[in-house]
Amino acid sequence: MxxxxxxxxxxTTQAQTVEYAGAKGKGPCRRQPGTIxxxxxxxxxxxxxxxxxxxxxFSAASVLYLLSNHFPILEPRQLPMWxxxxxxxxxxxxxxxxxxxxxxxxLIYCLCRNTVNLNKYLYxxxxxxxxxxxxxxxxxxxxxxxxxxxxxxxxxxxxxxWTTLRVGDNPGNCCPSLHVSSVLLCGMLxxxxxxxxxxxxxxxxxxxxxxxxxxxxxxIIDVMTGIAMACLFHWIFNYKVCYRPLKKV
Length: 249
Prior knowledge:
This protein has 249 residues and is α/β, with parallel strands linked by helices. It has helices at 50-70, 83-87, 95-99, 101-111, 115-138, 156-168, 178-187, 198-214, 220-240, and strands spanning 2-5, 8-11, 17-19, 29-30, 40-43, 77-78, 141-142, 242-245. The chain has one domain (44-241).
């Protein structure tokens, strides 16, 4: 038996399955065994407000990152550098892969068709950012950039990119790599829809992750913990949390 109530299709024979209005494609949220009881997050992002929501999301993430990067509570410390860290070459031109992260974010956000998936991404992304920033504030780590000076003769635009990066982004906020975790979490959105796009964005995201090492922004352990953080928050907000429509006033 199916009833229509407040724009929702509710199957009363399977009371725990709800398909939300406004979600493009198939996006039912099922209260399955193992989900956290009593937690249902509102679907605050809609087709109408997704642009402003995206702007606010990435603005908040940028502010959180910069605060912890420039104003750590404790003195940042270097981590032990593994043999692999020293073996990986410094490739200055890979900075263009590194900073392509920002195009990557915007493109995936715009390509997402299912607003339920977009809400899951919003909650997982801001939670990942918040927890990572808390780690950066309480356990700040730094990378010895002075061992890898930027060589001359790279060209005007590449030099400008390096100057902007090293002036605006202190060598802290290393572990876990928020660059890696954010990219992977964003790319995993295509596990839930448009799966043919997943290989392309996975390859691009992998290149960005590798570039954090070839630009000498991160240790290998930063990349590993960044991958773990992305998987953890994707799992929580896609499999352990249910969502409900935002109540109309």
